[in-house]
Write a structure and sequence with these properties.
CATH architecture: Sandwich
Structural class: alpha+beta
Organism: Paracoccus methylovorus
Shape: globular
CATH superfamily: Jelly Rolls
Number of strands: 10
Strand content: 15-25%
Bound molecules: fe (ii) ion
CATH class: Mainly Beta
Order of helices and strands: HHEHHEEEEEEEEE
Pfam families: DMSP_lyase
Oligomer: single chain
CATH topology: Jelly Rolls
Radius of gyration: 15 Å
Largest sheet: 6 strands, antiparallel
Protein name: Transcriptional regulator
InterPro entries: DMSP_lyase, RmlC-like_jellyroll, RmlC_Cupin_sf
Distance between the termini: 22 Å
Length: 194
């Protein structure tokens, strides 16, 4: 089994960039396990599908960070973006009004991903400006690498803004959420060890 070149290149850039910035909680060990497991290739998965909210993607990906590994990561996402399969999730009373039309997630590796597998999930979230993602939780532990402005919270904490290149850990079943600023889309990469 081989992996499409564009996806392999993105992993080669993304996983080291995540590991270099992972200092929170169990993120270093979690990302080490994910990186090791990702050397095994899963099955071919989802075909491309876009959504209207993806009009914000060009703006989210237009960034040219000073850090060369992050600049390479944005370039890799620009190349991979035509292959992505975007999906929405359900909202609830904690989500902003119009949430359904103003967010999308794309799985790279994982259930429903470009590469179908169950052991790890690697994906991205895109929120239009002013959008608040619902409080949510899941059993797998999670590490975020934030790639835009925008705020996050976990365990009912105050909102915090990691900034571009910021990383944090979400423990299993910990309630967490994110929200975009009024002026810019939120774009973030996440990795879960299932
Ligand atoms: Fe999550």
């Amino acid at each position: 089994m081989t992996r499409p070149e564009t996806l392999q290149h993105l992993l080669d850039v993304a996983l080291p960039a995540m590991q270099a910035r992972a200092h929170d909680g169990d993120s270093p060990a979690s990302l080490a396990r994910i990186t090791e497991a990702s050397r095994t290739v899963g099955n071919p998965g989802a075909t491309p599908a876009s959504l209207p909210v993806c009009n914000w993607l060009d703006r989210a990906l237009a960034r040219e960070p000073d850090a060369s590994d992050l600049a390479a990561l944005f370039a890799a996402f620009r190349t991979l973006s035509p292959l992505l399969r975007w999906r929405t999730r359900t909202g609830d009373s904690t989500a902003s009004e119009g949430f359904a039309d103003n967010h999308a997630n794309a799985m790279l590796l994982g259930p429903g991903g470009l590469e179908e597998r169950r052991d790890l999930w690697l994906g991205i979230s895109l929120l239009a400006p002013g959008t608040r993602y619902p409080d949510h939780q899941h059993a797998p532990e999670e590490t975020y690498l934030v790639l835009s402005p925008g705020q996050f919270r976990r365990n009912g904490s105050d909102w915090f803004e990691p900034g571009v290149g910021g990383s944090f850990f979400v423990a299993p079943n910990s309630v967490h959420a994110m929200r975009a600023t009024k002026d810019a889309p939120l774009f973030a990469l996440w990795a879960l060890w299932a």
